Fold this protein.
Amino acid sequence: MISQPHIPVMLNEVLSALKPEDGKFYVDATFGNGGYTEAFLKQADCRVIAIDRDPAVQKRAAEFKSLYGGRFDFIPGTFGELGRLIDAPVDGIVFDIGVSSMQLDQGERGFSYAKEAPLDMRMSQSGISAKDLVNTLSESELADLIYLYGEERKSRSLAREIANYRQTKPIETTTELAELIYKILPPRRGQTNPATRTFQALRIAVNDELKQLETGLAGALDATLPNGRIVVVSFHSLEDRIVKNFFASNTAPKVHKSRYAETDADDDANYPLAFVSKAILPTPEECRQNSRAHSAKLRYAIKRKE
């Protein structure tokens, strides 16, 4: 029996956008704790392949395999490698971008400023860590990273504070870094924790998340069958902008045409996507029940029929 999962963000909206059907083949490109995968397998007699870079999820994937058998498979890897990992066309692909609830709850992983832990943030548990970045990047490189990936206006001041501190000793832990941030941006009751943007920036850089998203979307477009669906749940403006622009660039532009003008029926066929949704937001009720849902946005696209 599968242990109780975290409730995935915007599950009802994801199911509505993907529309799992019997006999179809889907990819959960960000398996995590398996919430979306389990919902797909329960809603329809379909097949799901799940992808995740985090070795910690493999025990969870083994539980799914024992319960669902040939309807479920797991492939270790990043969703940016989707085009290489999936060798057969699929009917739909779902992405849940960013850090998972499971990773946040594992304080020792170093994703949360609220839990004392080594400053790590590596989803794959290998490679360059957040500790490496904050202690080795130059002050200007660190400021650029925090501004670009965290959209933090105080990035220069924060980088200066970090650079000055590390002259005395390396920055080792999440709370050590958070306290440095609070010197420049004191926490205010009722407002987002001021460490959020800097921690986000480091996590994105450590895991190369934006490049992964770009290559993952391209791989998904290639792997999806005609009339297939690509669904993306994102959690901040940088991710959402990439998704919005990717979908728009692969959809025929909406231009007003006179009904008397000659039209070329093949114009739209040059674009692989037939439909792109607007941003869909979580319900107020979900936001009250799940704080992670507050910043979520869902967009989906449907591939053109041949």
Remarks:
- The mean pLDDT is 89.
- Strands lie at 25-28, 47-52, 72-76, 90-96, 224-234, 273-276, 297-303.
